[in-house]
Design goal:
This protein is mostly helical and about 260 residues long. The chain contains 11 helices and 2 strands, in the order ααααααααααββα. A two-stranded antiparallel ribbon has the order 1-2. Helix 9 packs across helix 10.
């Protein structure tokens, strides 16, 4: 690349930066003007009988203007929450429709300013909802990470340990309560088979290997625990609740 090309590239970059800065200034101006106009419109169309007694018109106008400005200034946040590309179109002008985006943005800011109280309440609830969803996602991700760590930490049944379990299972003709026949559903059989693979399993790991949902496996494990076919244990690394098959579970699986 020669000096001329470098100079052209720098010039283009500078021009783009100036255009984007101008777009930001215009957007800020739209927010302010729309906030003021929308706030005044809301004040003029409000039923005067609803105004609190003893409050001057000047204070009421100032209140409506402030609400309008806050609502209008919240519009970029709202557009981000709904994943709209209007602001990106204004700043980058990728598709050459910046002017149209200005018009849409102006209209949205006016509407937000006019219905400021409702809009601010709505966007506040939406933000809180997304924060809660983000927390739930982070919690689920943490749970998944712990499950993965425990699945890796669990030792596969050695031939000797599995033989001992099967030997202990010979004492049972059914479950640990002495019932001669234990009815096992297909899901229960699948979960028991998954538990014969490792010294203990997470509910998630058992569900994945058994081919059932994470929600359903909880009921299956509770049913198996009630029949004394699995034991609740704890991971030696994370100390979280995990599941292990019992000799009665081996016997029931073999009989089933």
């Amino acid at each position: 690349m020669n000096v001329a090309d470098v100079g052209n590239a720098v010039q283009i970059t500078a021009q783009t930066a100036n255009e984007q800065l101008s777009a930001l200034f215009v957007s800020a101006a739209i927010i302010i003007v729309a906030g003021v106009v929308g706030g005044i419109a809301a004040y003029l169309t409000e039923d005067k009988a609803t105004f609190p007694a003893g409050v001057s018109s000047r204070k009421l106008v100032a209140r409506y203007l402030m609400l309008g400005l806050v609502a209008s200034a919240s519009m970029p946040l709202f557009l981000s929450l709904v994943r709209s590309e209007i602001m990106a179109s204004i700043i980058t002008d990728q598709h050459g429709d910046r002017f149209q985006s200005y018009l849409v943005f102006t209209g949205l800011c006016l509407i937000a300013a006019y219905s400021a109280r409702t809009f601010i309440t709505s966007i506040s609830q939406r933000v809180l909802q997304q924060v809660q969803e983000a927390r739930e996602e982070a919690k689920d991700a943490k749970e998944t990470a712990l499950d993965v760590a425990d699945e890796r930490a669990a030792e596969p049944f050695s031939a000797a340990k599995l033989a001992k379990l099967k030997g202990d299972a010979a004492e049972f003709t059914g479950d640990a309560t002495g019932r001669p026949n234990v009815h096992l559903s297909d899901n229960e059989k699948a979960v028991l088979r998954a538990l014969t693979r490792m010294s203990f399993r997470t509910a998630t790991g058992a569900a994945q290997e058994a081919g059932i949902s994470r929600m359903a496996v909880g009921e299956v494990l509770d049913s198996l625990a009630e029949k004394k076919l699995v034991d609740m244990t704890h991971s030696p690394t994370t100390k979280r609740i995990r599941w292990a098959i019992t000799p009665a579970g081996i016997a029931a699986l073999k009989a089933g």
